[in-house]
Amino acid sequence: MYKDTVYSAFNLLMHYPPASGAGQHPQPQPPLHNKASQPAHSVPQLSPLYEHFSSPHPTPAPADISQKQVHRPLQTPDLSGFYSLTSGSMGQLPHTVSWFTHPSLMLGSGVPGHPAAIPHPAIVPPSGKQELQPYDRSLKTQAESKAEKEAKKPTIKKPLNAFMLYMKEMRAKVIAECTLKESAAINQILGRRWHALSREEQAKYYELARKERQLHMQLYPGWSARDNYGKKKRRSREKHQESNTGGKRNAFGTYPEKAAAPAQFLPMTVL
DNA sequence: ATGCCTTTGAAGTAC
DNA sequence: GTACTTCAAAGGCAT
């Protein structure tokens, strides 16, 4: 099922990569905050597709993907140089997406002829784990089996937005610089850095995100973000807000009396 | 084992 | 149309 869809999309894109701006979504514009002094910006023309750059974290494809099918966001397999957003250097951001190997856009499993048959990382089993529970048919009703089968359907993840793509690329760099590992703290830093980027720099990521959405739509035409609603177990809204303003530690391990100011209002001193 | 924290942006829901 | 909610990633930490 996915195999066919993915492979069709692969062929389609190999031969007819969508033109810039041809997406079904309106072109997102970088936010205007802190950018007043900068000229209105149009998204830069992309270099031809398939202009790749190498990843600092190449990961060999698993020998047997049937054994494990887990979400492997940054573990881009070595696909003969098809790498994308894993460059460690901001300055080397590619002008194009490597359509078939972006961590969240890599081809799904069982692509005919593909040596590694890598599972599509946007498709993960429920809870991100491969279920291997013993199954006693005699104890299950048909309804239960059906419900179970439904629950086992792999989840197609949302495509990453511009900031998420930026985070993914810059996280390692920030961790190296700050010797922090806690993601909440790292993300605060990345949020400030994001706002410190120029419109042009941000535009690169908005363009990449637009292509992500475009490819995602082609790979999973019927998919909706709503499909994943409720799949994450969350606390109630009240509790959630309470924890944001209350006596819980923040990302830096402190216990603020009030909620921290939004990142955009923090001083522009970027770590 | 599971959810929270923390960020931004896209997309969904509710009114 | 507007406001609000959820989920994408990440990994340490709390429960």
TrEMBL record:
CDD domains: HMG-box_TCF7-like
Segments for region (Disordered): 18-69, 226-258
Superkingdom, taxonomy of origin: Eukaryota
The keyword Transcription is annotated on this UniProt entry: yes
Keywords: Activator, DNA-binding, Nucleus, Transcription, Transcription regulation, Wnt signaling pathway
Intracellular or extracellular location(s): Nucleus
Chief location: nucleus
Keyword Secreted attributed: no
Location of the DNA-binding region in this protein: 156-224
GO cellular component, one term: beta-catenin-TCF complex
SUPFAM superfamilies: HMG-box
GO biological process: canonical Wnt signaling pathway
One Gene Ontology MF term: RNA polymerase II cis-regulatory region sequence-specific DNA binding
One Pfam family, short name: CTNNB1_binding
InterPro entries per the UniProt record, alphabetical: CTNNB1-bd_N, HMG_box_dom, HMG_box_dom_sf, TCF/LEF
Family per similarity comment: Belongs to the TCF/LEF family.
Name this protein carries in UniProt: Transcription factor 7
Species per Swiss-Prot/TrEMBL record: Suricata suricatta (Meerkat)
Gene of this entry: TCF7
